[in-house]
Amino acid sequence: LQISGYLNLLANTIDNFTHGLAVAASFLVSRKVGFLTTVAILLHEIPHEVGDFAILLRAGFDRWSAAKMQLSTALGGILGACFAICAQSPKGAGETVVWILPFSSGGFLYIALVNVVPDLLEEKNPWNSLQQILLLCTGIIVMVLLALT
């Protein structure tokens, strides 16, 4: 088995840990924020996990082993959620949310921008760049509208 498969599993576990932090902290804010965060992460995770599964297959894992390893990385999300809940201050959830949500949001923004900006800079077709920027702005507008409702 190639080392890339194991590195991908480690990265996926850390990614799922931050997702667990974000979901738990969001539910500490309110049910609405918690459900919105959960849906957003699920929409992100479906293609992400399919891609990770393909990486594991190319790294030499058989289908059953790759599926089991992918499932085991989901425990990182459970650990992240448990950590967020256990990190609650006796003063209330506000103390926890103050640092967890900015930490996880910053991580998501960093990863998104590290993946998107280099592609935009390398894109030769201005129409494709404009489409990507418009879709990015559409996503931001959707988030703002959901926050206002």
From TrEMBL:
> Does the record carry RNA-binding as a key word?
no
**Cellular compartments annotated:** Membrane
* Coiled-coil stretches: none
- Its domain of life reads Eukaryota
* UniProt GO MF annotations: zinc ion transmembrane transporter activity
Gene Ontology biological-process annotations:
intracellular zinc ion homeostasis
Identify the GO cellular component terms for this protein.
membrane
Q: Which reaction does it catalyse?
A: Zn(2+)(in) = Zn(2+)(out)
- What is this entry's stated membrane topology? Multi-pass membrane protein
Q: Tell me the keywords, alphabetical order.
A: Ion transport, Membrane, Transmembrane, Transmembrane helix, Transport, Zinc, Zinc transport
Q: One Pfam match, by short name?
A: Zip
Q: Where are the transmembrane segments?
A: 69-86, 98-117, 129-148
User: Which family is annotated?
Assistant: Belongs to the ZIP transporter (TC 2.A.5) family.
**PANTHER family per record:** ZINC TRANSPORTER SLC39A7 HISTIDINE-RICH MEMBRANE PROTEIN KE4, ZINC TRANSPORTER ZIP13
The name on file for this protein is: Zinc transporter ZIP13
